[in-house]
Amino acid sequence: MQTDNKFFEDLSKVATSALGTIAGVGREVEENARRRAREFVAGHDAIDRDEFEAVKATAAAAREAVELLKAEVAALRAEIAAAKPVAKAARAEKA
Known about the structure:
- This protein has helices spanning 6-43, 49-94.
- It is mainly alpha-helical.
- It has two domains: 1-46; 49-95.
């Protein structure tokens, strides 16, 4: 048997209304959070992907150039080191 109880009917309506309101507040909070995140990123000089890739390529080229220069310096040092004993020997022969 079902009985018509106005109290439970009203309680059900209030609960349904409260859940709808809570869901609406949740959507509003989510929208505000997304908007603020977009504003934060836009206001902090974020770079786009193309700029990042260009800087990345420039850095890679610079690293390659540094490695080449290191190899050249090492070769020149070896050449200087090999020439020093020859120069010392030549000076010793003159004396």
